[in-house]
Amino acid sequence: MSTEETVKQILAGLGIEVPEERIARLAVAYEATLAQSASIRPDTTPTPAPSPFDPSWETK
Amino acid sequence: MPAINPNPTAHTIRETLALLDRKELSTVQMMAALLTRMQETDEQVQAWLDVRPKFLMELAETQDRRRSIDKPTTPLFGIPVAVKDIIDLAGYQTVCNMKARESVEPAIRDAEIVHRLRKTGVIYVGKTVTQEAAAGIYSDPCCNPWDTTRIPGGSSGGSAAAVANGTALGAFGTDTGGSIRIPASLCGVTGLKPTYGRLSVAGIFPLSASLDTPGSLARAVADCMALYLGMQGKGNDIPTMWNRFPTEEGSLAGVRIGVITNYFSDHLSPDVEAAWKRAVAHAERIGAEIVDLTWDDADAARIAATQIQRAEAFQVHRDLLRTAPHLMGEQLRSRVELGAVLPADVWFTALNARERAKASIAALYAEHRLDAVLVPSTPITAPKIGETTITYSDGVTEDTGVALTRLTQPWNATGQPVFALPAGLDRDGLPIGLSLVGRPDDEWHLADIAHALETCLQ
After folding, report:
1. Which residue in A10, A37, A49 is closest to B349 by CB distance?
2. Dist. CA A51–CA B295, nearest whole Å
3. Using one digit for the tens of pLDDT, what is the confidence trace for B353-376?
4. Phi-psi region at B98: left, alpha or beta (left = phi > 0; alpha = psi -120 to 50)
5. Å from B15 to nearest chain A CA?
6. Is B84 a catalytic residue?
7. What is the pLDDT of residues B70-112, one digit of tens each?
8. CA B204, CA B364: separation in Å to the nearest integer?
């Protein structure tokens, strides 16, 4: 399935009508977002990080 | 250049309170001067939406009568303050620059922070222009008072322009991706984005619930802190607070300031880079210890904040997108459509990246025993209206919206408090802004450092 078809299918599932002429640009933004998301995904399964509001801030 | 230079006679809140106290200025005189300036300049600047001059003059007269009988018991008695038009002000519409809300009923009560600050005796002058739904950096149709062919930044653009132009002494803003710090930087005023969660968002139209942060804009660090105290409901502490901020040049002895040499130094205008270096040198001269460091998660923090914002903005605007998308501006509509199609995996990846960024910046502050970090607020000064792309001296181009949020968004991801400080002018006479970033919930210490710096940055 192409990205444009994927985007259309998601929108249809949400009951949102988006004119055909907007789909191509939305598909490009969608792909760019997935690529950016992949760039911040860790190689390993993330484990809960300590909150910065916890004692790690108190070591000064 | 069609400039409206910021009112050279404009005072800070602290100075104005002293003038009022010594009866060298009355509230009526101040309000009349403010309304005159608004009448003379706001047709061009367009910072204001709903101002009621007759009501304001009556209010000022009432305050002067009360002042003639007894010394005011409220700490910001008579100080004129602007309210960004995504924040409820009783009796006024909250339109949020959205066509869909043009006929919305006036708010029946103040937003919580407006209600709390009202108890300090401030006068709410009216509502100020914001970007549609607070989602962007232009604040159309507001212009930059330093040069009306340029944008004021957003989304609290009207609030920053009003303070810069001398038509308010302080203002409410909100910051989800830089919306206090960007307009503060482009308009040459001071802004405080407190730690995420420190101020109530009740009565504020949301953009992204896990990032939205209300704060203050004014002409000085101490003024921002006075407004911040009032917004917290701690107005009684304001009179003694002023003593914390001496008027003579401060010292930063014993203070360690981090300078992040990666990411925040990429693609800066030469004048912004020079102002940053000057500020670091000033900080060192007055006693600060400067620590150069790198933060590898800065870009991931920016991406995480962007993607979280897209997903959460869809949550806010889903029904409008379904039922009346034609009432949405192109920029807002595109953002919300993208938020609609993002898979949950993107959302969870962004949440995880945000937690990693929080942990890594906390570790850096701990490792280097930092009190604050000093970086530019924006890589450029105010762009021209309609300038959609920025070209840097090395030939690299960047979307204007991305450029203006690139250096602010990482601090929304981490939720840290930030002071946006004016740091002089560029070669075109436009304000440059720097950001001083503190530890979570450490606003007072950050304000001490910011105050010491502001006296030598101007």
Report:
1. A37
2. 17
3. 999 999 999 999 999 999 999 999
4. beta
5. 36
6. yes
7. 888 899 999 999 999 999 999 999 999 999 999 999 999 999 9
8. 33
φ, ψ (nearest 5 deg) of residue B214? -75, 155
Q: Does residue B426 contact residue B274 with C-beta atoms inside 8 Å?
A: no
* Site from A22, A40, A58 to mutate, B interface, most B CB atoms within 10 angstroms: A40
* A37 with B346: Cβ contact below 8 A: yes
Rounded Cα distance between B378 and B183, Å, is 10
Are the C-beta atoms of residues B275 and B430 closer than 8 Å to each other? no
Q: Which residues of B touch A18 (CB under 8 A)?
A: 325, 337
Q: Tokens for B427?
A: 């070669």
User: What is the DSSP annotation of B192-235?
Assistant: EE--TTSS--TTB--S-TTT-EEEEEESSHHHHHHHHHHHHT-G
What tokens does B65 get? 């009568």
pLDDT tens for A4-57 read 999 999 999 999 999 999 999 999 999 999 999 999 988 766 565 555 556 666
pLDDT at A45: 62
Inter-residue contact B191 to B215 (CB < 8 Å): yes
Residues 10-29 on A with a CB inside 8 Å of B are 10-11, 14-18, 22, 25-26, 29
What is the band of B456 on the pLDDT scale with cuts at 50, 70, 90? confident
Helix pair angle (A3-13, B330-341), 10° resolution: 90
Kindly list the residues of chain B whose beta carbon comes within 8 Å of any beta carbon in chain A. Answer: 300, 303-304, 306-307, 310, 318, 321-322, 325, 334, 337-338, 340-343, 345-346, 349-350, 352-353, 355-356, 358-359, 361-363, 365-366, 369-371, 414-415, 439-441
DSSP string of B323-366, one letter each residue: H-GGGS-HHHHHHHHHHHH--HHHHHHHHHHHHHHHHHHHHHHH
Helices (H), B146-208: 157-164, 181-187
Q: What is the pLDDT of residues B291-327, one digit of tens each?
A: 999 999 999 999 999 999 999 999 999 999 999 999 9
> What is the C-alpha separation between B433 and B389, in angstroms, rounded?
20
Which pair of tokens denotes residue A52? Answer: 């910065």
Interface contacts (A, B; CB < 8 Å): 97
Q: Residue B226 is encoded by which pair of tokens?
A: 């006075």
Cα–Cα distance for residue pair B458/B454, rounded to 1 Å: 6
Residue B236, phi-psi category: left (phi > 0), alpha (psi -120 to 50), beta (remainder): alpha
Please give the Cα distance from B8 to B43 (Å, whole number): 19
Report the candidate in B219, B150, B186 with the shortest Cα–Cα distance to residue B8: B219
